[in-house]
């Protein structure tokens, strides 16, 4: 579980919370936190993701929750920024936050309330997610930090499919070698030729073994993602996300 290192100091806004404005908001969109660019926050148990730009977009795929609305004017609280929307309320506290799963740390602790349900996690400017090492420390771009990551002769461990963590035990891997992709999502072996053009990845017709396993949900979802044209996105040092219209696969390099 993602844990903040200090208690939250939410609700300490510099001024009273104004009634929710109507869309479009009467005041110009003030942007996300000053000098921070587009903002992103993530959490585990369940896995969720939030981006703040002209819109606030929240996704919890494990519980099939997805909310997007215009970003309201920001309130500057004592500890950080507060965004009070109709369905989304975001409290950003500028205190170190630790990702309990990977050990990575982030500059902010973030609390999100979605239709009354509370989520806690870590956040930073979106660019931070591309330029940190496994401890959350700034670094120069690595061989796997460019926008056009070459996948040939690389091996990956699957950590999440559609936001759900895969079992720690079992064979959940994707390898790229000699123009072919070899994948396992806990049961059958899946293979196909593949081509990559920049951040676009296209696997050919999938060939798979036919073993029957007790739970094939991950395999079904993973295969569906591979079966469509995918986008390759670098999400950190030695970390990638493959996404298609069928969902997402999060990977860490082996």
What does this structure look like?
This protein is mainly beta and 254 residues long. Helices cover 4% and strands 44% of the residues.
Task: Give a brief rundown of this model.
With 254 residues, this protein is mainly beta. It has one helix and 22 strands.
Secondary structure layout plus pairing:
Elements: E1 3-4, E2 39-43, E3 48-52, E4 55-60, E5 65-70, E6 75-76, E7 81-84, E8 88-93, E9 97-98, E10 105-106, E11 108-114, E12 117-125, E13 154-161, E14 164-165, E15 172-177, E16 180-185, E17 189-197, E18 200-203, E19 207-208, H1 217-226, E20 230-236, E21 239-244, E22 247-253
Antiparallel strand pairs: 1-9, 2-3, 2-12, 3-4, 4-5, 6-7, 7-8, 8-11, 9-10, 11-12, 13-14, 13-15, 13-22, 15-16, 16-17, 17-18, 17-19, 18-20, 20-21, 21-22
Percent in strands: 35-45%
In order across it, which strands form the biggest sheet?
A: 5-4-3-2-12-11-8-7-6
Question: Based on CA inertia axes, which overall geometry fits?
Answer: elongated
**Major sheet characteristics:** 9 strands, antiparallel
Class from secondary-structure proportions: mainly beta
C-alpha termini separation: 23 Å
Number of strands: 22
How many helical elements? 1
**Regions with little confidence, pLDDT below 50 for 5+ residues:** 1-37, 132-147
Chain oligomer state? single chain
Q: In percent, how helical is the residue content?
A: under 10%
The secondary-structure element order is EEEEEEEEEEEEEEEEEEEHEEE
Give the rounded overall mean pLDDT.
77
* Radius of gyration using CA atoms only: 20 Å
């Amino acid at each position: 579980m993602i844990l903040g290192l200090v208690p939250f100091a939410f609700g300490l806004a510099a001024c009273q919370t104004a009634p929710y404005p109507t869309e479009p908001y009467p005041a110009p969109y003030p942007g996300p936190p000053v000098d921070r660019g587009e903002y992103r926050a993530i959490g585990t148990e369940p896995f969720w993701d939030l981006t703040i730009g002209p819109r606030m977009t929240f996704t919890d795929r494990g519980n099939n929750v997805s909310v997007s609305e215009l970003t309201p004017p920001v309130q500057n609280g004592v500890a950080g920024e507060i965004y009070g929307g109709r369905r989304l309320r975001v409290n950003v506290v500028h205190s170190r936050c630790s990702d309990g799963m990977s050990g990575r740390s982030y500059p902010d602790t973030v609390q999100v309330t979605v239709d009354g349900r509370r989520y806690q996690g870590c956040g930073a400017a979106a660019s931070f997610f591309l330029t940190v090492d496994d401890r959350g420390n700034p670094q120069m771009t690595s061989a796997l930090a460019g926008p056009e990551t070459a996948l040939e002769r690389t091996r990956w461990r699957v950590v999440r499919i559609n936001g759900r963590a895969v079992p720690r035990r079992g064979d959940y891997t994707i390898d790229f070698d000699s123009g072919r992709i070899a994948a396992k999502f806990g049961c059958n072996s899946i293979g196909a030729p593949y081509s990559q053009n920049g951040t676009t990845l296209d696997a050919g017709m999938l060939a798979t073994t036919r073993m029957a396993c007790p739970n094939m949900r991950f395999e079904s979802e993973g295969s569906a993602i591979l079966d469509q044209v995918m986008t390759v996105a670098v999400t950190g040092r030695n970390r990638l996300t493959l996404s298609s219209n069928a969902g997402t696969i999060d990977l860490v390099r082996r």
